[in-house]
Amino acid sequence: MKFSRRSFLQASAFAPFALKAATLSQVHVSVISDEISDDLAHCADFLHSFGVHYTELRTIWGKYNTAQPLDKIREAKAILEAKDIKTSVAGTAFFRIPLPPEGAEGQAILDKQWALLNDAMDRAEILGTDRLRVFAFMSPKEGKTSDRDWARIFELLNEAGKRAKPRNMKLAIENLGGSCVSTGADSARVLKAVKESNVGLTWDPNNAAESGEKPFPDGYKLLDPARIYNVHIRDYRHADGKVEWMAVGEGEADNLGQIRALLKDGYKGTFTLETHYKSPKGKEFATRTSLTGLLKVVEKV
């Protein structure tokens, strides 16, 4: 899976290196579009210049995709199709809330979440993806998640899977700092309890590192690769007891080892760059730098 030197010689106004689609068909690189720009047409040009054929849509034109009317989603699909770009995952904020209390008040909150799930599936169908990035509730501000709360979380995630299954949607729970599922160990616990086969993971090794876990190989080896539907890639380093986001290749993350392991284990989804690190030159520059770093990692796979 080595990339030829010639693959990197097509420069563009956006990208210092470009990869041919035939090569990227082996390692499916994606980028979260709003880490480039809120202007989707500009994002499409940027990705096309790198030869990248996938994007994860989260915010477009300044709003979460689930808040955009369906006509705008159709417009987004047309813009991406014109540049031969597919939506790998539709990002949602489903269950990115504290666990609702039991009773009428909590049910009202859940009703809004079920409506959000329906809206997300409507948009995903238009965009041509069967994968939704979701969450597993935020941790309580005080204390730990109780066994009773965990039982409700498992029940609600199973219910979400049941609701999504008739529409052939996969729900990819992201492990996120500050949520009930922040590490590989948390993710493994949830997947063991949630039996619906269309509920899986957006595995984010960097978030696991931020939560104190060694994500690879320690966190990853706890996971069932068959239930990983999406992977977020970036880089980090430890500084003053905290995790600081970096451009890919400039930090501690073993992205090469992680990508190799996933491919060996049969993973066929996307490796989605979620830039996060900040540059004084702006987020497009930061994403360009980090994507270039990711492609250099992929060259070694």
Based on the model shown, name its key terms.
301 residues, TIM Barrel, 10 helices
Protein described:
The protein is α/β, with parallel strands linked by helices and 301 residues long. The chain has a single domain (28-299), classed as TIM Barrel (Alpha-Beta Barrel). 39% of the residues lie in helices and 17% in strands. It contains ten helices and twelve strands. It has helices at residues 21-24, 40-50, 70-82, 104-127, 147-164, 184-193, 205-210, 215-219, 255-264, 283-299; strands at 29-32, 54-57, 59-60, 63-64, 86-91, 131-134, 170-174, 199-203, 228-233, 235-239, 242-246, 271-273. The protein has an eight-stranded parallel barrel with strand order 1-2-5-6-7-8-9-12, surrounded by five helices. Strands 3-4 form a two-stranded antiparallel sheet. Strands 10-11 form a two-stranded antiparallel ribbon. A hairpin with a 2-residue loop joins β3 (59-60) and β4 (63-64). It is globular. Residues 1-22 have low confidence and may be disordered.
